Amino acid sequence: MIIIPFTHITKTLSNMTIHVFRILTIGGTTLWKEADSLDLHQDILNPNGIYLDGAPILWNNAHLCHVDMTKTDMNDFYQWAEVPKNSDLFCWKTYYTFGNKNNHCSWMEIPKQERLEPYSCQDILEGISEKKVV
What we know:
Layout: E1 2-13, E2 16-26, E3 32-33, H1 40-45, E4 57-59, E5 62-66, E6 78-79, E7 90-99, E8 115-116, E9 119-120, H2 121-130
Parallel strand pairs: 1-5, 6-7
Antiparallel strand pairs: 1-2, 1-3, 2-7, 4-5, 8-9
């Protein structure tokens, strides 16, 4: 199973809304994968100190997991800038998009070639936004 733990916040400056997405990755390039036989909460997320804000949503054979930032100690994980290149360490990778309150991609989209294997980052961010899990 593919697991996509994420956070999403918005900040409004003047007429512009900045969307800040953080996705837990492996080395900033790959998404988290585990055996389908494991229980998402009991065997994977909770033992790793990750707690969710609501139920995960199945999207394109991946589990979108909105992380509860008050229950999860975000400092227990690296930030992407802290890990060496080609690392297999878990780290939060941050993406910024601009738009209005409901649409994160009205301009300055994430480049289509930017990927968190096996998906494009743009598809992941749209999947999060479309599912209204934020």
